[in-house]
């Protein structure tokens, strides 16, 4: 990928790490917080629809709280990141820092309330809300970064794009071979990142429990924010996005 700018490679690497983290977050939330997704909002929308339809013994409150907190994170993130970008501030780093702090705080709440328990034995809306709020903020951050094929919270489209390209259907956006390779790498990283994150998140739960696992995941986001700041990962035309 000799003609791909180093900045594109750095952005791809950061978004790959964030995709892995999203998978880890959902492993923790689904397996220990009452079978609710805090990152992949599509799952909660479906759970909510099942619950409202009154079938499958699916609760309404948990997915509704997760969806509401996720939307709230987006509502907070969009104007905050837009304002920072308009003033030339490091909006991407700020978005990641906010996400990391929310995850650490949610983990601290879970740790304080449940200690080293392997799962929360009842619906804890504070923990669910905090984690989903963090992931709503992440959605806004990833959207503004706008790395094609890497939303960090969704893999279906990337999977379809990768299969479509590998089958060699004509594409107008692929361009030079190195650009096409970068596009394939991004799609593959999105699909594999969610999977790898789910595995890592599950492994974290065994020795740590949900509280400490969330703290570790939040700390990883903060490290990613610091590394992004040091590497100068940013979107040059982000200030133009409204």
TrEMBL record:
InterPro entries assigned to the protein according to its UniProt record, in alphabetical order: DUF1275 (IPR010699)
Entry keywords, A to Z: Membrane, Transmembrane, Transmembrane helix
Membrane-spanning residues: 60-78, 90-113, 125-143, 187-206, 212-233
Domain of life: Bacteria
PANTHER family per UniProt: SLR0142 PROTEIN (PTHR37314), UPF0700 TRANSMEMBRANE PROTEIN YOAK (PTHR37314:SF4)
Name listed for the protein in its UniProt record: YoaK family protein
